[in-house]
Amino acid sequence: MDTIEKNTLLYTENLSKNFQGIQAVKNVNFKINKNEIRALIGPNGAGKTTFVSLLCGRIKSTNGAVFFDGKDISNFPVYKRISGGIGYTFQITSIFLNLTVYENVALAIKEETGKTNSIDKEISNVLDKVGLLDRVNQRSGDLSYGHQRLLELAMGMAQRPKLLILDEPTQGLSDPEIDNFKFLIKSLSSSTTVLLIEHNMDVVMSIADKISVLHFGEIIAEGDKKTIQNDPIVQKAYLGD
Ligand SMILES: Nc1ncnc2c1ncn2[C@@H]1O[C@H](COP(=O)(O)OP(=O)(O)O)[C@@H](O)[C@H]1O
Ligand SMILES: [Mg+2]
Cα-atom radius of gyration of the chain, to the nearest Å? Predict the structure, then answer.
């Protein structure tokens, strides 16, 4: 096994998804290394959400395979992928609106560890990191959309995943909150691998180690910031306008 393979956390082989006639994801061969921060960009409808949904098992692939942490997880259900170390937050928030901020994070931790006591410290810790500690007893449904996204991020972090997948996490955040988010993700990368779908190019350019560009379900370019910014195909398809 060479170094690249040893460092690989997740890879896909010809991963594909068809929705009645629409090929949302087409034969994608994707690879992410341990402790990498990867940005996945592309126009609306490119297949980004579908692609990461295939990774975490929310939808079933039409064809192809997903390997994670040395195992073929293609047929694993969502819960098994979560317990194996894949955490995610999605564009549509999945928090319990009638529970408090505290209770939502507690549930996320309990799901992972089965523990019910001595989790206060962990809850305070992750809420502090995302900047929601002062809202710990607030009803989650009363938070702004941006803060609900931050709560989801805290819930994802509390599960200490090996791979954290974030689908447009900065949507609805203010500029200072986005700055905090960038700092947070940078600091996470010593212990976690991050796959980030992001429209805010400033966020992408300041935190991503590597960028993958998805266009009509295919990865049309991949590389560091310079490579992506200077790629004529990417400029035409995405950055140009
Ligand atoms: N559940 C679904 N049923 C049918 N078509 C879908 C479904 N989810 C996504 N699509 C289609 O797949 C394509 C990719 O969508 P999506 O993955 O949401 O793109 P992105 O996240 O890049 O904006 C779009 O054409 C979208 O309309
Ligand atoms: Mg999407």
Answer: 18
Spell out the CATH class of 1-85+164-170+198-241. alpha beta
Q: Which of 15, 48, 50 to mutate to test the pocket of ligand 1 (most atoms within 8 A of CB)?
A: 50
Domain boundaries, the chain: 1-85+164-170+198-241
**Tokens 């989801």 belong to residue:** 152
Contacts of 14 (CB under 8 A, 6+ apart): 27, 28, 29, 63, 64, 65
User: What does the pLDDT look like over 86-126, one tens digit per residue?
Assistant: 998 876 667 999 999 999 999 888 765 555 556 788 899 99
- Amino acid identity, position 35: N
Flag whether pLDDT at 3 surpasses 60. Answer: no
53 lines ligand 1 (CB under 6 A): no
Kindly give the number of the ligand 1 atom that is closest to the alpha carbon of 217: 14
Structure confidence at residue 2 (pLDDT): 47
pTM for this structure?
A: 0.92
70 residue type, one letter: G
Average pLDDT on 43-55 reads 96
What pLDDT sits at residue 13? Answer: 97
Buried (b) or exposed (e) across 62-88, using 16+ Cβ within 10 A?
eebebbbeeeebbebeeeebbeebbbb
Under DSSP, is residue 103 helix (H, G, I), strand (E, B) or coil? helix
Please say whether the beta carbons of 39 and 18 come within 8 A: no
